[in-house]
Specification:
Strand order of the largest sheet: 8-7-6-5-4-3-2-1-15-14-13-12-11-10-9
Low-confidence stretches: 1-7, 10-20, 217-224
Shape: globular
Number of domains: 1
Mean pLDDT: 83
Length: 271
């Protein structure tokens, strides 16, 4: 898994809250087909603060095995200037039921410079397995079954899962175990609920937000003591507002730039 994919993974899992029902019912879902969210991804190092990529999250209604489902797409592309030095394109797609955020199918296609990665998952919830067709890190195509438990998501569905949960019973300092699958592995990490903030977002203004943090895994980018922070809007939509994580050199940030077709009025903006 390459560096920028690690950033995206950490971003997408960084705010999951606990719930007795892993996959909420339709009456609890805070989004609708047609929703679009655009984020800018920035690298900051000293006086340098450059937008290196854009991420687009969209939700549509689709069909899978003859049934109507949601299809969530996350597409990240390097900015035109940055592409001259490092060309990046990430596409993540998940299909899940209209009445519950339980993933049914997942697709990943990654291009980062010379690196390529491909995931195609079919979820088998009866057998608690993911039937996976994958190719990453130059290993060639692999067909395998990945064991899962009831609360495993993937890179795209996890955002919608998070937004559907009930944050009202959380108190600052609450530690929350979460899980997500990518490539051939299910990752289990621990998140911490930090409370509520008001954050200033370029192009949006001041936003009331709910804050979570995550202790990231030590590696080439992170030193093991690094804590990533992510904010979701403190309203009925739970829109991902922004994230921030220090790196061994500089830091990476992402902030919402544009929001369209939300299910509810965006009431988190401070007037």
């Amino acid at each position: 898994m390459k560096k920028l994919t690690l950033i995206l993974c950490a971003l997408l899992v960084a705010a999951m809250a606990s719930a007795q029902n892993c996959f909420p019912t339709a009456s609890e879902l805070p989004f609708k087909a047609g929703e679009k969210i655009r984020m800018g991804l920035y690298f900051k190092w000293g006086a340098v603060n450059t937008e290196v990529a854009t991420g687009d999250l969209a939700l549509t209604e689709s069909a899978l095995n003859g049934k109507s489902v949601y299809k969530a797409s996350l597409i990240a592309d390097s900015a035109p200037f940055f592409s001259v030095f490092y060309d990046m394109h990430e596409r993540f797609e998940t299909w899940f039921a209209l009445d519950a955020v339980r993933p049914l199918k997942y697709y990943r296609n990654t291009k980062q410079g010379d690196y390529r990665a491909f995931n195609n998952y079919i979820y088998d919830w009866d057998k608690k397995e993911i039937h996976a067709d994958i190719n990453f890190e130059g290993r060639g195509q692999q067909i395998l079954d990945i064991p899962i438990h009831d609360c495993v998501c993937d890179i795209t569905s996890i955002l919608f899962y998070v937004r559907s949960l009930d944050f009202s019973g959380l108190t600052p300092g609450k530690k929350i175990p979460i899980s997500f699958a990518i490539d051939d592995t299910v990752f289990d990490i621990v998140m911490t609920y930090r409370g509520k903030d008001t954050v200033k977002v370029k192009r949006i203004g001041k936003v009331n937000a709910i804050r979570f943090s995550c202790q990231v895994v030590s590696g080439a980018m992170f030193d093991g003591e690094t804590e990533m922070t992510i904010w979701f809007s403190d309203d009925s939509n739970r829109v991902p507002v922004g994230f921030m994580a220090p790196l061994r050199i500089g830091s990476v940030q992402g902030w919402v730039k544009q929001i369209e077709n939300l299910k509810y009025p965006f009431e988190a903006r401070v007037k």
